[in-house]
Amino acid sequence: MTFLSQIVAPMIFVILWSSAFIAAKFGVAHVEPFTFLTSRFGFVTVIFAAMALAARAPWPRSPRAYFDIAVVGLFLHAFYLSSVFIAIRGGMPSGLVALVSGLQPVLTAVAAGLFLGEPPSIRQWVGCFVGFAGMVLVLSDRISVEGVTLLGIGFSVLALVSISFGTLYQKRNAAKMNLLTGNAVMAATGCLVTLAGAALFETMQLVWEPAFIGAFLWLSLAVSLGAFSLLMMLIKHGQATKVASLFYLVPPTAAVMAYIAFGEEISVLAGIGILVTAGGVAMVVLPQAKRA
Questions:
Q1: Does pLDDT of 292 surpass 50?
Q2: How far is CA 166 from the centre of its chain?
Q3: I need a surface site. Which of 132, 195, 211, 268 has the fewest CB within 10 A?
Q4: Predicted model pTM
């Protein structure tokens, strides 16, 4: 990746990933979580498969390759997103869910050093904790203990573990997958898992309100096709700790988007937090100057 793409691609990823929280606020109000995700993953599977066939993209060559890609889809698509949606729908404050899952860069940094041979530098460790501190400031006036349950905390932790494990597993076992066919397999895996959840626990009714349709199309096309493809590319070409640190920028970016979309106020403390978070992420992702 060129230096320009190292800057532009992460910026686009953060914007698209952050927009998912805004779109979900419109969509999930009309449709149950598993049903929403099943329809989204099914639609995305068809699109990626069609694009792969049109481009004659190579499919995985062995059952093990399919298995590795499916594991990534299981954790990044099915477990992570389902856990976040269930926790929030169950009354867990979204700010607290974001705070728990926001520990991902630290957890990924530790695991990357242990299992991938990518130990973070001292500057990256400092950046991880500075970024987390900034994210806490951003979410400080949005976190409430009202509605907190053991079940909600459990699903928040499951979301944290799922996205961290999925990121590391993709980096170690599925980094060479084709983006089109790989994403088709991952989306299909997420669709099958959430379909089982919808069949067991939900009514499986889709309410075709304009808000749901808009959210569905945006989450499917911009987030699942765009953001997830960028995430896979960034993991393939970058250090796991650097990629994970980008998730610190999601709450601040989502806060700015919520201000634009819903008029949600950004406090002075949150504004400071946005700057602190950006500084922490910069310490992790920007190349360190070499001494002469």
A1: no
A2: 10
A3: 268
A4: 0.79
